[in-house]
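debug: dumping io for the single-chain case to check the tokenizer round-trip. Nothing else runs in this session.
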Amino acid sequence: MTGYGKSSFESNGKKINIEIKSLNSKQCDLSIKSAQQYKEIEAELRNVVSQKLERGKIEVYINVEYPENFSQYTINKALFNKYHEELTGLAWDTQDKTKEFLATIMRLPDVLKQEKEQADPDEIKLLLDTMNVAVDMLDRYRINEGHTLMKDFEKRIDILLRLIPAIEVFEKQRIVNIKNKLFNSVLSVEAEHKIDKNRFEQELIYYIEKIDFTEEKIRLNQHCNFFLDTLKDENSNGKKLTFITQEISREINTLGSKANDFDIQKIVVEMKDELEKIKEQLSNIL
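debug: decoded output
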């Protein structure tokens, strides 16, 4: 599910911003980009995020804003003086009296050193607490999206449940049409071949029993209601709902293969259309 969260805190004169984004994914694909001083607690940060968000393509950004007078660099004066002394002697030897060495020396290795900043325990605790705040914000975002999806699923399943009895309107006439079609076929060959009418009746009953889809309608109704019950469960049931839609799809396909009736086939197409809309959105939930 998609979501966004952001939070920040201040520590030792600097401001630390946490931004977290989530896109749809079947697994928990977590990426954390942070300042160097927080690398040692990355495992804890990952634990905070993955426990609450469970799955998704999740990106976490931890940005540090320093005050204007803050510097992370120091000059190695001893090394600077050594370079200066040697370059000055070299200048005299080469009769170069300009001695403009400042910019050159500053670019030499190890003259300008970056201080390795360490996060103190209080700052780490603030960071973890702030991460929880950002994750909770993203989670609320996803919950709101989930409520919207839930209403859409309920709407689609309700359409499926209303289409099941709509089939019954055409069922009786469907059987009559099938009987007439088979009977006319028999009459067309009866002139040349003697037909046992009792055997024909038995075969007809057997055939009609095979194309009867009462059981499919019952199971389809049960699967739809099971889907609604699972939807209301507080646990994460995205995969379970996917399995239920597979069962629903199986029953709808069987109805279509047994139908032998244009009006019923139209209803089956409507069912498939609604089910595909459900499947498309199922990838967006946990």
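debug: round-trip ok. The chain has three domains: 3-69+121-142, 73-114, 146-282.
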